[in-house]
Amino acid sequence: MPTLNYAAPSTVDEAVKLLAGASGLAKVLSGGTDLLVQMRSGRLKPELIVDTKKIPGIIGIRQENGGFVVGAATPGAVVEADAGMTAAWPGVVEGLDLIGSTQIQGRCSLAGNLCNASPAADSVPALFAAGAIAVVVGSNGRREVPVEQIPASPGRTTLAKDEFILEFRFPPRPARSSDAYLRFIPRTEMDIAVVGCGINVTLDEKGVCTAARVALGAVAPTVLLVQDAADALIGHTLDEETLKKLDAAARAACKPINDKRGTIEYRTKVAGVLARRVAAIAFDRAMGKTQGKTH
Amino acid sequence: MSKHHVTTTINGEPTEYLCETQQTMLDTLRDVLGLTGSKEGCASGDCGACSIIVDGRLVCSCLMLGVEAEGKAITTIEGIAEGDKLHPVQQKFLEHAALQCGFCTPGFIVATKALLDENPNPTETEARYWLAGNLCRCTGYDKIIRAVMDAAAEMRGETVR
């Protein structure tokens, strides 16, 4: 068995050098809730693990220029416990809150969930809908990447070998803005999404949508940002006509597979239903009608 | 690569050990340190039998590397009782017969302690969601939940029944 090396650098430069210099597969370790399982099953055989958690700022939440900055390796449980994030981004928080168990949430991170690149990742639709920016570091310095450009296909990202995500920047919140995330599973807890949907909206005083982002999970090889579904909301209140258009746009975007969790037909139908429900929660929250989590 | 030298705190005791990169925290506890109370059920983070508390957060020790314990404060099932005196959660699991084979019990007790440290007055729903990552094949969970709710009440200083 080849030797497995481990390093826990305390600077970005050191981490990037280690990743760039690895001759075989090098993996970034944040919470490890996917990586360790994949190593155990033999699916991944890295020769180097770079534990990034000692890099300053990679764990923690701060406010900057009117928006939140969440360190890439911040455990889900830490984000869920943050009153500021819960108030400003309840949809992102409820996505994180649905990843695995309490134990998993003690370690799992936004960056891990995004870079594991599962189409069914629970925090990713909400992250796409939020319009979060990933701050990516690598040998060529630092670049800011819209999160929807990170996943490439199941299990693959657009990051180069020597790159990793340092933090996520959430944009400042205009008045009457909120978000929501729901997933459908056949049980109440501890399952993988059949379909997930995250919606983020800004409304005017009359409840007319002025900005929206809609994302769907588990209905395509990657999580999808669905512009047509957002367009169905923008310029409208959430009346039945708008809901019908949203439902249709969400269904039209689906390119799912048949598997044990659901058929193509079923997933497509559920995507439309979930989009309606999530939009209703996000609109209510934006108008201050409800607070907090949906479960 | 040679083994990693790790300095950490386990159940309040400063502890040093050597481990290989691929050894999980669970492997390290059981095979290096002889702390065999944490159990390996699934080794994939699904069953919770290996639950430990790391810097105040409940985690699966099978999904953490032994080398990651450097500088952390870790509580395992062996650190829950105070000497011969059982923790109220342990006492209530006994009183309510909240176990049969007992394999999942260390994980449930550690997870329950973490819950009550964070939320001394959970609703039954909150307790059930918190413990959703701990699987028990024997009990059907009801006795476990009764033990958890009773332990919570006792730790709040309330007498029930």
Briefly say what this structure is.
Chain A has 295 residues and is an alpha+beta fold.
What are the SSEs and their pairings?
The complex is a heterodimer of chains A (295) and B (161).
Chain A: E1 5-7, H1 12-21, E2 26-29, H2 35-41, E3 48-51, E4 61-64, E5 67-71, H3 76-80, H4 83-88, H5 90-96, H6 102-105, H7 110-115, H8 123-130, E6 133-138, E7 141-146, E8 151-153, E9 156-157, E10 164-169, E11 177-184, E12 195-203, E13 209-217, E14 224-225, H9 227-233, H10 240-253, H11 264-286
Parallel strand pairs in A: 1-3, 2-3
Antiparallel strand pairs in A: 4-5, 5-10, 6-7, 6-10, 8-9, 11-12, 12-13, 13-14
Helix pairs in contact in A: 5-8, 9-10, 10-11
Chain B: E1 4-10, E2 13-19, H1 25-32, E3 51-54, E4 57-60, E5 73-75, H2 88-95, H3 105-118, H4 124-130, H5 142-155
Parallel strand pairs in B: 1-5
Antiparallel strand pairs in B: 1-2, 3-4, 3-5
Helix pairs in contact in B: 2-5
Describe the structure in your own words.
Chain A is of the alpha+beta class and 295 residues long. Chain A contains 11 helices and 14 strands. Chain A has a 5-stranded antiparallel sheet. Chain A has a 4-stranded antiparallel sheet with strand order 11-12-13-14, sandwiched between helices. In chain A, helix 5 runs antiparallel to helix 8. Chain A starts with a strand and ends in a 9-residue tail after the last helix. The model of chain A has no long low-confidence stretch (mean pLDDT 96). In chain B, 43% of the residues are buried. In chain B, strands 2-1-5-3-4 form a 5-stranded mixed sheet, with helices on both faces. In chain B, 32% of the residues lie in helices and 16% in strands. Chain B is built from 5 helices and 5 strands, in the order E-E-H-E-E-E-H-H-H-H. The N and C termini of chain B lie far apart (59 Å). Chain B has 161 residues and is an alpha+beta fold. The mean pLDDT of chain B is 96.
